[in-house]
Amino acid sequence: MRRHPAPVRLSWRWLVDSPLVVAAWIAVLLGAWSLQRVGGALEDASALKTEADGELARLAAEAAVMQLPLDDDTQSWEREVGPVAVAVQRRGDRLWIASQLPGLGEFGYVARLLPGRAPAAFGVPRSRVVPDLDDAMMRSAVLADDAATLRRDSGVALLYYESGTDLDDFVLLHGRVDRQGEALIEVPGHLWIEPGSTPLVLHCASDVTIVVRGNFYVGRSVRIVGPGRLLIAVVGSEAARPFADRDGNGRRSPNEGGGGAAVAGAPIEGGGNVYFGLRDASTALELAVGVLAVGHLHLRCDTALQGPLVCAADPVELAPDVRLESTGQRLFQPARELVPGYLAGGEPRPGLLAPADHVRARFPDQQPLYLGTSAR
């Protein structure tokens, strides 16, 4: 009988038993790892270069538009900023900018053409300089009854003050503040944020100012979702005047003159005042809004504001050891942004730059940004 050779059986152990084989495997693995690292490093370097090119183009565009004489009738300009050629065209109330890097194509931006700069008080965490509203803008303000996130409430004041209030009361609700594109809302009375176990969540796609002709009563924290900022401007009225409510009863007492004697028939609760914390609802507040008050800030609890705090008067403490903090997280840039409801002063100036693709999505009726020919 013919014998067949026994099959050769290979054990997996030969892959690791020999030091030479192990060294070979290690060399292969290190080589693969090195190639991966090199490939990743090249990708990272490419991404970093693209980012650096974009930043250089943006800085050149910023430098160019800040040098433009925007107070004349010129419609287009060319500027050389280092190695970057910048072309600018004025189209209506916008500036369209193309930055050309040698051999790298164009980077596009757009900026609003502003009539001037906004009040400086909105660019710092705290200010005692209270700017005036623009009466012309106020004539086009949306009234509280037509605003999606405001509800008239005749009983809310009775929960905290025995006699309630003389003016109408409105409650701020969850939701999108600028649902219909509102930038300026007028409340012909008091504005309330009712107490709750969770923050009031407001959505703002753009900046909004709510002008309050009475007082502002805050019972819970406020969180803003979106890029917009919310400013509560508590201005009172000729009849609803502010006073320092030192006993915290919500009524003007004989010794609480404050902002001047009340006129005949004036609301007993006054106007232009702010109350941070309500009776039986005075947990610490974190407010992602800005507040302007022509009267006094009344503190029942620790309060932190992310937006600008504008008030000429000293706070009135209604509880011991309460603190008022302005974090400055949601300030305006007065030199490059407008604040709804407030006048811009000085010479025309460019607003903040935005990437062209983002702006084209928001303003689809505009002509293409990238300039077919150089601006002359």
- Please give the count of helices: 4
Stretches where pLDDT is under 50 for at least 5 consecutive residues are 12-16, 358-376
Q: Which band does the percent of strand residues land in?
A: 25-35%
Q: What overall form do the CA principal axes indicate? A: globular
Give the helix proportion (percent range). Answer: 10-25%
Mean pLDDT: 83
**Helices and strands: which structural class?**
alpha/beta
Number of domains: 2
* H/E series: HHEEEEEHEEEEEEEEEEEEEEEEEEEEEH
**Which quaternary structure do these chains form?**
single chain
Q: State the separation between the terminal residues, measured CA to CA.
A: 101 Å
Rg calc? 31 Å
Largest sheet: 7 strands, parallel
For the secondary structure, the number of strands is 26
Strand order of the largest sheet: 5-22-19-16-13-10-6
Topology:
Blueprint: H1 14-17, H2 19-66, E1 76-81, E2 84-91, E3 94-101, E4 105-114, E5 126-127, H3 135-138, E6 142-143, E7 150-152, E8 169-172, E9 175-176, E10 184-187, E11 190-193, E12 200-203, E13 208-212, E14 216-218, E15 222-225, E16 230-234, E17 274-276, E18 285-287, E19 290-293, E20 297-299, E21 303-305, E22 309-311, E23 316-317, E24 324-326, E25 349-350, E26 354-355, H4 356-362
Parallel strand pairs: 5-22, 6-10, 8-11, 9-12, 10-13, 11-14, 12-15, 13-16, 14-17, 16-19, 17-20, 18-21, 19-22, 20-23, 21-24
Antiparallel strand pairs: 1-2, 2-3, 3-4, 4-25, 4-26, 7-8
